[in-house]
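User:
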Amino acid sequence: MARTVTAKGHPLNLSGTELKVGDRAPDFALLNNAMTTVKLSDSAGQVRLLSVVSSLDTSTCSTQTKTFNDKLATLGEAVRAYTISADLPFAQKRFCDVGGIDKTETLSDHRDMSFGKSYGLLLPDQRLLARAVLVIDKNDIISYMQVVDEVSNEPDYDSALKALKEAIG
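Assistant: Predicted structure:
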């Protein structure tokens, strides 16, 4: 059975490996704003927040990124946060510079969409990522995951932050 999310009620097919809470988080290799490769394994032993958005140039994705950036300030260095999209690193840098984004690192999956494939969040027809939030614990296990059913809706921030605090311990 095909996995889908919707965009304004229209179904969009999800592609890639479906993950769930309790699964080991696959490593990834994505580009940051400086065009340097960042891997999940670079932050081994830390709690990670993956905030996945379709494009930072849309209002909901912008709101999601700014909201997590603001809320992460209260957690200090306990969490490594990444906002992942298919946007080019140059566009991500512009967004961060203009929006004052400094608590989450933006990472680009534009090259080969490998993150989207390995996390089951690829929207292949649009060449975008589905909106999702994941918490990965210190042992690289997914302790929280929300794939937002309607891409224009915001995620459940409170549940994600609760899961982050629990993973920190």
